[in-house]
Amino acid sequence: METTRQAKISRLLQKELSEMFRQQTSKTHGVIVSVSNVRVTPDLSLARVYISVFPSGKGAEIIENINKSSKSIRYELAQKVRYQLRKTPELSFYLDDSLDYIERIDSLLKKDEE
Which domains does the chain have, with CATH numbers? Predict the structure, then answer.
């Protein structure tokens, strides 16, 4: 069960990371990166960030690049939230493929109707 503090920190991190990725992806035309969910551990030391990538074919490549630069992303995030958080949690990034899963179910249902 997520505490109120965890939920507030999750929303703060999601908002700030979304803005950071929006600014970065505005330079790369045709790729949209959004933060779909952030889950923070109870001791607030680790944040699992779930990222949705469009087009989904580039998802693995984008996540790999983000994980390589996770230290600089954490530093930039710490600069943005330095007045709200005393210590910025470690970040681990995961690909959120729920949209692909929903699309697959829809295509199977449409195929079944025919």
Answer: 4-113 (3.30.300.20)
With beta carbons less than 8 A apart as the criterion, state whether 6 and 44 touch: yes
pTM, 2 dp: 0.82
Mean pLDDT by 10 residues, the chain (114 residues): 89 94 81 90 93 84 90 94 92 84 80 70
CA dihedral sign of residues 37, 14, 85, 3: negative
In whole angstroms, give the CA distance from residue 74 to residue 85: 13
Surface-to-core class of residue 24, CB atoms within 10 Å of its CB (0-12 exposed, 13-18 middle, 19+ buried): middle
Instruction: Identify the pLDDT of residue 114.
Output: 65
- Match 């908002």 to its residue by tokens: 15
SS3 114: coil
Q: What is the largest CA-CA distance in the chain?
A: 57
For 67, phi and psi rounded to 5 degrees?
Answer: -65, -35
**Both structure tokens of 39:** 């889950």
